[in-house]
Amino acid sequence: MTRPAILLFLTLLTGTLSAQPQATGKTVVDQKLTAQLEAALAGFHGRVGVYVRNLKTNRIAAVNADSLYPTASMVKVPIMCGIFDKIEKGEIAFNQELVYRDSLKYDNGIVGSFRDSTKIALSKVVHLMISQSDNTGSLWLQAMAGGGATINQWLDGNGFANTRVNSRTPGRKEFQARYGWGVTTPREMAELVAMIRNGKAVSPAASDRMYRYLGMQFWDGEAISQLPSNVKIAAKSGAVNQAKSEVLVVHAPHGDYVFCIATKDQEDQRWQKDNEGYALIRKVSAIIWKHFEPKNEWKPVEGSEKFWF
Q1: How far apart are CA 22 and CA 7, in angstroms?
Q2: What CATH number did the domain enclosing 156 receive?
Q3: How many structural domains does the chain have?
Q4: What are the pLDDT digits (tens) for 267-300?
Q5: Are 204 and 40 within 8 A, CB to CB?
Q6: Smaller CB count within 10 Å for the chain: N or C?
Q7: What distance in Å separates the CA atoms of residue 186 and residue 67, rounded to the nearest whole number?
Q8: Number of neighbouring beta carbons within 10 Å of residue 109
Q9: Is the pTM of this model over 0.85?
Q10: β-pair type (47-54, 257-264)
């Protein structure tokens, strides 16, 4: 082949490659969805990251998806993994009876309102941690899982380099001061929940039970509120003054997808439904649904917002 012919071939090849979706490993970047998310996030008064992966097509969209964000109550997902790892090893039992002590109290949630010596099954405390986001119960389970250091070892051993429990964990004081109870990236938190969905966290049986817990959510007024009520969803949300977050697997008609959105350094710290972070979570959830389900356009029932938590 002559030099001019080679140059022409390379030019055509380069043009062909540049016209293809940008690949990252075994995934392919969804440029259209990425652009929609970038537009939605523009102008937010704080920092925000989003990660989306369609579990059927493996197409992804990511905006600041590898930056660190506070987990807030999303940290309860890795705590749950730590507990089930202990169960799988036979060190504790799923239905063993626990005895609550006043010394465990952190706040006035459900578990924190128990009388001293109240008996409750471990399985019910896990349920309260995930569905109600009970803080006292979560800290109790964190300790039973071996503490934050043990949970972090599990995370590290399963490929999660950035997701960590900070609170009550030796060596994590600086991270706790910056990020609170836990720290993660949108990509890692989404992929952790996807791992549970795919039966690969701890064991297939443990993953199945954990996924059932994630499907029972009391706090459904943000991302979940923008999805049809007859669609199966597994989720966990989190919120502190300066940060709002949520991770979901959505069993959409044309294929499951997982996404996580997280904020930090928010200017708007009001605990109101129109908080800028809450509003952005709802907006992003609606955009993703519409993108993957263009023929199943849906919007919340008129007046339903008065029933959102």
Answers
A1: 23
A2: 3.40.710.10
A3: 2
A4: 999 999 999 999 999 999 999 999 999 999 999 9
A5: no
A6: N
A7: 8
A8: 18
A9: yes
A10: antiparallel
Cα end-to-end span (Å), the chain: 69
Q: What is the pLDDT of residue 1?
A: 44
Contact 243, 154 (CB under 8 A): no
Residue 131, classed as helix, strand or coil, is: helix
Q: Which of 295, 292, 208 shows the shortest CA–CA distance to 258?
A: 292
What strand order describes the sheet that includes 59-63? Answer: 23-24, 27-29, 59-63, 47-54, 257-264, 243-250, 233-240
Place of tokens 């109790």: 140
How many CB atoms are located within 10 Å of the residue 149 CB?
Answer: 14
Query: In angstroms, rounded to a whole number, what is the distance separating the alpha carbons of residues 195 and 207?
Result: 8
Are 166 and 218 members of one domain? no
DSSP 202-266: S-HHHHHHHHHHHT--S--SSGGGGS-TTS-EEEEEEEETTEEEEEEEE--TT--EEEEEEEES-
Strands 257-264 and 243-250: antiparallel
Residue 219 placed within a domain: yes
Residue 233 has phi, psi (to 5 degrees) of -140, 140
Domain boundary (149, 172, 195) is at 172
pLDDT tens, position by position, 197-251: 999 999 999 999 999 999 999 999 999 999 999 999 999 999 999 999 999 999 9
Return left, alpha or beta for 39; rule: phi > 0 is left, psi -120 to 50 is alpha, else beta.
alpha
